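DM from R.C. (forwarded with permission)

"hey, sorry to bug you on a friday — could you get me a structure for this? deadline for the figure draft is monday and I only need the backbone to look sensible"
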Amino acid sequence: MTSRSIRLRRLRRSGHAPLSRRRGAQPKVVALGGGHGLSASLAALRRITGDLTAVVTVADDGGSSGRLREELGVLPPGDLRKALAALCGDDDWGQTWARVIQHRFQSEGDLHEHAVGNLLIVALWEQLGDPVQALDLVGRLLGAHGRVLPMSAVPLELQALVRGHDPTRPDEIGTVRGQATVALTPGDVQSVHLVPNDPPAVPEAVAAVLDADWVVLGPGSWFSSVIPHLLVPELLDALVETKARRVLSLNLAPQPGETEGFSPQRHLEVLGRHAPKLALDVVLADEAAVPDRTLLAEAAKRLGAAVELAPVASLGGGPKHDPELLAAAYDRIFRMHGRIGPWR
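My reply, with the result:
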């Protein structure tokens, strides 16, 4: 047994582990990702369970988050803020706070484009000295319908091996550094890794995965928001060992830059290369975004998964998930592919 496996077992018995589920409880769901993709998933999942935990990537180095990270040496707060906003209540209190924490200052000075929520989160980190405790406090202030956790307690740098990042050398493979740069690279991303390459996972995030009924990965920027969770060794071990069912939610369209020209099945192939020991149970895709269902089904089968096709896209306005349709798809998957849990 590896040292990480021993630590996972200890986490199950430690104070970090969530309370055991009670008869009649709702399904425990953990959603992993970052940015707008994770926000879309959370907006859907909160409609079908009150026991929801978001585990968020912490490799962002652009915009307000990047500036705060560079100046103060803190975790990038932006994706954590977006997850909290997605979990805000539908009442006046929740919606007011959702708007406030998403508000960005517009000025000619240093506050320009800083998000209020980023500053609030960083202030509490400095006050409390504990990122998890601070995020829990922000969640209570906002009346959030769920918990938000960073995947690691240390800031991470995303690096990618990219073929043709320099258009004048289309066959050359070079290293691209930084999440913001990787997300927009014009080349063909071969693989990604984190620096440091063996980052510690947040114990509460590991415990949540081990105690979950369902784990949801994606949608989101594939190389910069989805795959990074599989590069944190303790978190990957938990995803492999958990008794939870695992659903992967595919994007509605390739992302300009890092996944330009990717088919749905290629998304699965690169995920499998980064985490060959990880098996899935279900792959969810929008039925209109799959040109070849046979090829997708074959790629999913190699990961141990069945494919569920459902209309989950909003009408008009570009590729965007509809929260109600996505919630209906998740609910059907939870009922059809998992045991009929005590919440039913």
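R.C.: lifesaver. Residues 224 and 254 are 13 Å apart (CA to CA).
me: no worries. The longest strand covers residues 188-195.
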